[in-house]
Automatic annotation (TrEMBL):
The chain crosses the membrane at residues 22-41. The keyword Membrane applies. SMART domains: UDPG_MGDP_dh_C. One of its GO terms (molecular function) is NAD binding. NCBIfam families: NDP-sugDHase. Residues 333-435 form the UDP-glucose/GDP-mannose dehydrogenase C-terminal domain. Its EC number is 1.1.1.336. This is UDP-N-acetyl-D-mannosamine dehydrogenase. It catalyses: UDP-N-acetyl-alpha-D-mannosamine + 2 NAD(+) + H2O = UDP-N-acetyl-alpha-D-mannosaminouronate + 2 NADH + 3 H(+).
Amino acid sequence: MDLSALGPEELSRELRAGGIRIIVYGLGLVGSTLAAVWLRFGAHVVGIDRDPATAGRAAAGEGPAGEPLVSEAFRVGLSEGRFRVVPDEGEIEARPAVRFLAVPVTWSDGRTVLNYLEDAMEAAVGHSRSGDAVVVKPTVPIGTTRRLARDAAARAGLRLDDDLMLIYSPERISAGRAVLDVEEHYPAIVSGIGPRSTKLAEDLHGLVARAGVIRMSSMEAAEAEKMFEGVYRDVNIALANELAKVADAYGLDFEEVRRASNSQPYSHIHSPGLGVGGTCIPVYPWFLVDNALGRGLVPELTMTARRINLSMPEFFASMADREIGGLRGRRVAVLGLAFRGDVADSRLSPTYDLVLELLRRGASVIVHDPLIAEDDSLRAMSVALTGDLGTALRGADVVVVATDHSAYRELDGDSIRSMSGGSPLVMDTRHVLRPDRMHGIRLRQFAGHTQ
């Protein structure tokens, strides 16, 4: 079956009937979300993941933490016989398929790590038949999709855009709302290696993206679009951190200034804080650096922004050291391990660097998070993680609010004094706490309220 020859109605009918199968390589947040979106559409989906724990959770109808729509879709798909999880595509019967590659692409030791994507591309192309499609989802440096697919297709004896449709459509999701981001919140960015692939990309994504589809002129343009999104946000957050430091030095409330500045439609200053976490914003600037240096360019602003955001944990540890008159021997309770409020995701969280800086200054540290129960990285530092605020605050000399979890907005001076047994210094790096509720507490908000 030539998928590119089908119109949207025929695609829809075949997907729902199981004549065309959706196969998702990688069942992390992105892959699980894609599988769930297509299950909710009514398609027949196969999830592939080599990690036994990840595969086992999906096969039991359990999606990533904090994504209830994913788990619900998995359970419905399993009960209706439309969802399977296997470690390798060789375990299922051949059928026309769209293969989504949703494996991680990271940055380590000064280079882009493509191992997972290279392996997934090789496997997906190797299992493809004439007329099938491969869709690449992770954010990658410019030129990656074309290069990896060209090499894999040559080894498989397939011609791209003739025998095999190749699509690049970057994921655009945030933890905690992933399914609705795909279905409702954002247009799908699509591109193809040729006209047939591009047509299929538009028709396919148009079935599930109610916010519409934006067709790019090339896969390289689509790769750049997603990368530039992340770089913009990293640079803007770095600017906010720099401006907030100036406001702090003058005793100004940065939020007041920011809101007034953003009343002008050309100003869109982001919020400052402890730093930038997750596997997107802290990583994509390095992809841009890689691309730029490869063409003889030095992206100085991008690199400076990265340095500023990476420096924020040290900045706050130094602030705490000054405010308390030395951290050595002090007990510090860090509130929040997740990189963003109300998500159970600590990947590349700036809290880790804050903990290291506090330990380096001789403090005793305990971390609280209402959504994360265990963490190997903290365990390796011999730092306790607890979900009980009373345990975290007991005996604390310093409390640092590192993550903007909703649970922390309910804290007040009386509860902090009661749980800590004293009157600790409270440092709010995210403007979470309400100063009017911090009676009897020494509150230090970054570029905000001090009492």
